[in-house]
TrEMBL record:
WD repeats lie at residues 25-66, 67-108, 109-144. Keywords: Repeat, WD repeat. Pfam families: WD40 (PF00400). This is SPG16 protein. GO terms for cellular component: axonemal central apparatus. Signal peptide: none annotated. One of its GO terms (biological process) is axoneme assembly. It comes from the Eukaryota.
Length: 144
């Protein structure tokens, strides 16, 4: 199964080798910039030009949580390997760490001087890697 998101504001899961669409999700009001499966495979996260991050439940086939807090388009998203946290990177120059269980922002990472274009958790750690239009990469320990 492959997950995609695009300018049409939709995410889709595709089955292979046939390439048939298995599920489609709609709800964002602008382009999708990122999407990835929760480590358990039961949910996914999407990020969008509409400034939101959304959590989707595959069995319910719908959005179960919309995370708001960025002031500009969200350029990327990532799940932590434990499945309890989502990271987002935004054109507002910040990144956020979201606690999915409490449904709130745990940390806002500030330090880049321009758009944060991507974000990834390093596997099985509390370290996050961000890349920015300011031509820098940053490693963050979300515990500190």
């Amino acid at each position: 199964i492959v997950l995609t998101g695009g300018d049409d504001r939709l995410w889709k899961t595709w089955g292979f080798p046939n390439g048939n669409i298995l599920l489609t999700g709609e709800g964002h009001t602008d382009w999708l910039s990122g999407c990835c499966f929760r480590p358990s495979g039961t949910q996914l996260v999407t990020s969008s030009g509409d400034t939101t991050v959304r959590i989707w439940d595959l069995s319910r086939r719908g959005c179960i949580l919309t995370l708001r807090g960025h002031s500009r388009a969200v350029r990327g998203c990532s799940w932590h390997s434990c499945g309890d946290f989502v990271a987002s990177a935004s054109m507002d120059g910040t990144s956020k760490i979201w606690d999915v269980n409490s449904e709130r922002c745990r940390y806002t990472l500030r330090g880049h001087e321009d758009s944060v274009n991507s974000i990834e958790f390093l596997s099985f750690s509390s370290t996050v890697l961000t890349s920015s239009a300011d031509k820098t990469l940053s490693l963050w320990d979300i515990r500190t």
